[in-house]
Specification:
With 321 residues, the chain is an alpha+beta fold. The chain contains nine helices and ten strands. Helix 1 runs parallel beside helix 3 and helix 2 runs parallel beside helix 6. The chain is globular and about 60 Å long.
Length: 321
């Protein structure tokens, strides 16, 4: 394959035209540096490794829906938007190969373009994902719609869990939900909670490790542990039984609150009982715990059940509610 036919990381950008739109793109490219590749064509051309499948996801972050301007810096807004999209690749155990940003800029945000780009670039770099294209347009509110592409020889799916499997979760939960409650109440969020809310990480390499270790199904926690466990249960045709006493919570967070805390971007994953992952090895390698929190049961009337907590476990974030 010739260079004309293939897009490779580090490929130089094409010359851009005159005007405010291209000036905005140039400002973003200055922030991204080598993290962006081959910008300027009508579309990106990417190679998928032989024997692997293409994995694609799109995620939108809209002012007034997903965040308020007073809660985060522009850099944090950009980083969170990119992380939310990249976390979908993590849920599928895919290796990122490209990110595209469609940026809607309202009046009053023009001076923050470089800082927004800095945040997107930081998350892309953290995930070793090149930025390969996108679009800039004027809009009524700030919006970042991010498309991510990845590849995987073996994808993790929501379906695949079976009765008898054990349920695990990465990290410690509840920080984003606690921070959100504080902000909505006009209080100052605990620093540890706010850090998890403002600066989440996509568990890309962690998920690939879990897939290699023999995971049977997975989902990232964006709507809340209980709600996403229900999504996995429905997809697999099983009931996911969680033990509230086993849920790893950040300091000051109750298990009932951790169950409904969204935008965690940790990985909920199942393993056959005969193929338990090495949780100590996981923690040593990635610096976060991997905790067994339940078991998969034969399907009954509910896709998720929680032992030891009085809460509707399936209650989570609904974008249209």
């Amino acid at each position: 394959m010739t260079r004309r036919d293939a897009h490779t990381a580090g490929e130089s950008h094409l010359p851009l035209g005159a005007g405010a739109e291209f000036d905005a793109i140039r400002r973003m490219l200055r922030e991204w540096g080598s993290r962006a590749s081959g910008i300027g064509d009508d579309a990106a051309v990417l190679d998928v490794p032989s024997g692997e499948k293409l994995v694609v996801s799109t995620d939108a972050s809209v002012e007034g829906v997903h965040f308020r301007r007073e809660w985060f810096s522009a850099q944090e807004i950009g980083a969170r938007a990119a992380t939310a999209a990249l976390s979908d690749l993590a849920a599928m155990a895919a290796e990122p190969i490209g990110l595209l940003l469609a940026l809607g800029i309202p009046q009053g945000w023009d001076e923050a373009i470089a800082e927004l780009a800095r945040g997107v670039g930081a998350s892309a770099e953290q995930a070793s994902c090149p930025i390969v294209g996108g679009n800039v347009t004027r809009s009524g509110e700030l919006s970042l719609t991010i498309t991510v592409l990845g590849s995987a020889a073996r994808t993790l799916r929501r379906r695949g869990a079976a009765a008898g499997d054990s349920v695990y979760v990465s990290g410690s939960l509840g920080g984003p939900g606690a921070a959100l409650r504080a902000l909505r109440d006009g209080r100052v969020a605990e620093p540890g909670h706010m850090q998890r809310f403002a600066s989440p990480r996509a568990r890309i390499q962690e998920a690939r490790w879990l897939a290699d270790a023999g995971a049977t199904a997975a989902i990232d926690i964006s709507d809340g542990l209980g709600a996403d466990a229900a999504h996995l249960g429905r997809a697999s045709g099983v009931t996911v039984e969680l033990d509230a006493a086993l849920i790893p919570c950040l300091d000051g967070v109750r298990p009932a609150d951790a169950l409904v805390s969204g935008e965690e971007y940790e990985i909920l994953v199942t393993f056959a009982a005969t193929a338990a992952p090495d949780v100590q090895q996981f923690a040593a390698r990635f610096g976060v715990p991997l905790t067994r929190i339940g078991e998969v049961r034969e399907q009954d009337s509910e896709p998720v059940r929680v032992l030891g907590a009085r809460v509707d476990p399936a209650r989570g974030h609904d974008h249209l509610s």
